[in-house]
Amino acid sequence: MTDFTGWMQGIQSRTEAALEQWLPGPQIAPERLHQAMRYSVLGGGKRVRALLAHAGGELCGAQPEKIDAAACAVEMIHAYSLVHDDMPCMDDDDLRRGKPSCHKQFDDATALLVGDALQTLAFEVLSQPDLLAQPLRQLAMCQLLAQASGSRGMAGGQAIDLASVGLDLNQTELEFMHIHKTGALIRAAALLGAYCGDCDEQALSALDHYAKSIGLAFQVVDDILDTEADTATLGKTAGKDAANNKPTYVTILGLERAKQLARDLHDSALAQLQVYGPRAERLVQLAGFITQRQF
Ligand code: GRG
Predict the structure, then answer these.
(1) DSSP element (H, E) containing 95
(2) Which of 60, 97, 170, 257 has its CA 20 to 30 A from that of 247?
(3) Are 200 and 60 contacting, i.e. CB atoms less than 8 angstroms apart?
């Protein structure tokens, strides 16, 4: 096995190349929309969801070329969510991935359309006819991504988030919001990678448990970074949650208990993976990366 950093950079660059291919060129009409889509997707982001898709796929012996499609689809949904989240009607943020957010660089209407078009492009990628030899499995993958993104997944979590401003949520309510808002897509990323390979029920269940725990850990760490890191490091506005009077793991638990929770979730994520040995190594390394990241 290569080192984790080398593996990560390899996945990041192959994902970038695959996204580049899927996104319509900047000279293709309507040029401004395609330029804004490319602006929002390419050249930024940690690609955590693509990494999860590949690590989940490795657990199940999937071919990297197949996983690329799942990774691109999830990254497109993620990019759409960031573009819409930054708009004035939602979180109203001017900075994303270290540059002006899409509606600042272009305009509100374009940003709205960028999100819409990225969402449908994700399903175009995932439904391409020659992706898998098992069409029913591929249909299940489309269904999984749709559920993870929709009102019982990410969009629902966003609705709860918007409604929770100024409220005193308890930890259970906060967890419910994050399981939907960020956790659902993170879970889908790992499982979609696995579906590209050949997984038995036990491996899928271990991966499901891993993805749920690491999805929550991702959010706890995000809350910690929002209080501890600076805007330049994050590439987005730091301290935004406190400024917006939003409940976070840090406001509910305090910094030290939030850090302990991230460690506990990390350990829980790995609990069922030991039996898979080297096949699960990337998942193990990725859990460490997600919980120890600085941005
Ligand atoms: C608009 C339907 C709709 C949903 C938006 C996920 C989301 C819901 C909004 C993002 C707001 C936010 C900052 C959430 C915290 C966790 C998170 C998703 C951070 C951004 O993800 P990273 O760190 O971003 O993976 P990069 O840029 O690395 O891809």
Answers:
(1) strand 95-96
(2) 97
(3) no
Confirm or reject: Cβ of 215 under 6 Å from ligand 1.
Answer: no
b/e 230-259 (16+ beta carbons within 10 angstroms → b): eeeebbbbbebbeeeebbbbbbbbeeeebb
- Only one residue has tokens 């374009």, namely 110
Find the CATH number of the domain harbouring 29.
1.10.600.10
Q: Which atom of ligand 1 is nearest to the CA of 75?
A: 29
Say if ligand 1 is within 6 A of residue 97 CB: yes
Nearest CA to 44 out of 4, 6, 15 is that of: 15
Could you tell me how far CA 97 lies from the centroid of its own chain? 14
Q: Tokens 């990337």, residue? A: 282
Residue found under tokens 């990628």: 125
The token duo for 253 is: 């638990």
Q: What is the pTM of this model?
A: 0.94
Q: Whose CA is nearest to atom 25 of ligand 1?
A: 48
Q: What is the domain range of residue 212?
A: 4-291
**Atom number, ligand 1, closest to the C-alpha of residue 219:** 16
Which atom of ligand 1 sits closest to the CA of residue 83? 1
How far is 95 from 90, CA to CA, in rounded Å? 14
What distance in angstroms lies between residue 275's CA and the mean position of ligand 1's atoms? 32
DSSP helix/strand/coil, 280: helix
Number of domains within the chain: 1
